[in-house]
Amino acid sequence: MILQNIKRRWVLILGLLAVMCTACFLVACASEPFDPLENGYTATVVYDANGGKYSTADTTGVRTFRYRPGTTIIQPAEGASLNIPTRDSYHVVAWYPAVLDEEGKPLKEGDLFVDEDGVSIFEGEEWDFSQKLPEDEQSLLYLVAGWKENYTFTIDVGEEARSEGVDNYFDDSYTSPSNVGVIVDPPARPGYTVRYYMSEDGRKFYGTQALRELQLSDETPDVVVTVEWLKGDWIVVSKAEDLANIDVSANYFIDSDIDMGGKEFTFSGYSGEFNGNGHTISNFKTDGTSSGKVSFSQFSFSGGFMHDITFKDAVYSFRLRGVNNVQSVTAGFIAADASGYDLGKFTNIAFDNCSLIVVKGTAANVEVIVGIDTTYHGIFGRLGDGQSFAPSSGSVSVEIG
Known about the structure:
Elements: H1 2-30, E1 43-48, E2 62-67, E3 90-97, E4 108-109, E5 112-113, E6 140-149, E7 151-156, H2 159-163, E8 169-174, E9 178-179, E10 192-199, E11 204-205, E12 215-216, E13 222-231, E14 235-237, E15 252-254, E16 258-259, E17 267-270, E18 273-288, E19 295-297, E20 299-301, E21 305-319, E22 328-332, E23 335-337, E24 349-359, E25 367-369, E26 380-382, E27 399-400
Parallel strand pairs: 1-6, 7-13, 14-15, 15-18, 16-18, 17-20, 18-21, 19-22, 21-24, 22-25, 23-26, 24-27
Antiparallel strand pairs: 1-2, 3-6, 4-5, 7-8, 9-12, 10-11, 10-13
């Protein structure tokens, strides 16, 4: 019995030794380095970044890979086993096969890779990564990165703004043809508003969103716009949509004639400056139909004012409702009662084919005061003592209907 136990122990010990030996053998085999040549990877491909880097730690700009003959090779790209090299303000457009001398080194004239005739290889054919390597077991392919300057977009703030410490906006990150992207941090100048951005061909762009219409391409690789500044804090108006919802505390600067397309244009309690800049706002109709009111106007002001503006083909109409217990109401195309306004600021205001229409309905006996002086008749319903107003020369009187 004892002898049997001893035999069993020796069998176990010998079995463990055999397993250990096998494991050691496998570890030894696994630790042997992989030899590309012995495994058929006999073709060599060199990727020369040509002034670029594959990483921040890269000091040579050269990567060498082994391939099996007759196979396709890696195309450097983001996320690939060989990432695309980088170079400030440049991007890789293609890879070009270098011409090699007898020692397998690329022909060069200075820093330029050339062919046997001294012509730049970048004027030749680029490498097609869909094609396969030669079947030659000892083939050598030396690829060189062909670079192109990035497309650039610049906002030129002007010499005067630069003298005040305002920097130009410059973006040279565009590596392919595209529209201008989102301007996250556009130039700002204290005490000024961007009136518009002007392109080199004279087009005006209102707001940074409009700049996205501009396109960077091989025909226009460097796009520049200049800033036209406007002193003060303004909302610049160039289209009807800008007048859809007036901020009564803001200053407005009209920078083009505006056709409202028959839509309404009105505001009340305005405290800012509405600068028409000599332009015309036309083709709008505003209806006032609130019940119980005793004054009607499409605009009213609370310390604010407007100037240098022409109103054309415009109608302000109002319907008397719930006013049967009053003897009179006041109405005006601009404002009903201007007695508290500084009319010295309401300058250069003109009218062309504008109407003030009163719909009395059942309130036929209510008097409607629309001004008693021909210079402001229909424009303001009432002025204060000592006040006066006259529209711009050439204005057509506001028609009362």
